[in-house]
Amino acid sequence: MQRYAAFLRGIMPTNPNMRNEKLRGVFEGLGFEKVSTLLSSGNVVFHAPGRDVPALESAIQQALNAELGIPGGTLIRTHAQLQALVDSDPFAGLTHCRETYLTVTFVRDAPKFVPEFPEGESTVRLVRFDPAVGALLTIIDNTDPSTTNFMAIVEKAWGKDITTRTYLTVQKALKKLGS
To answer: Pfam families from the entry (predicted)?
Structure first.
């Protein structure tokens, strides 16, 4: 069995069809084992026979849409990918806090370009794009209300088939998957 984390796009915990118990039910209905949700924002860890990740993403998304009416995207990362990301210590010396968000944006496809966040014009600082994980690593200055430019810039580069999590959430998903 392989260990995976699914990061779902467009989950709103206030929608009864998007609650954790229903999300777990869809994954269990697909035959996955050790299914567990993390927080209430569309993070699901599970074990499944080693399969092609795009096929897993497609099967999960089809089931979420058919059973719960969830049209958003499903992006999966393996335990090994998340472990490599955390082991690389991409935010060395920094702490995620209310004023400074350390973020990981998972993307489906290789970027056409890596977005630029010009210093002085943006409240976002690019750390790097990690092609092995398919993730853009950024630091967001939340003390400035103009941080809303982040998603517009990222979606211009990758489209809407992406999802962003805090680095803390990624670390928690990895911990839940076990070592």
So the answer is: DUF1697 (PF08002)
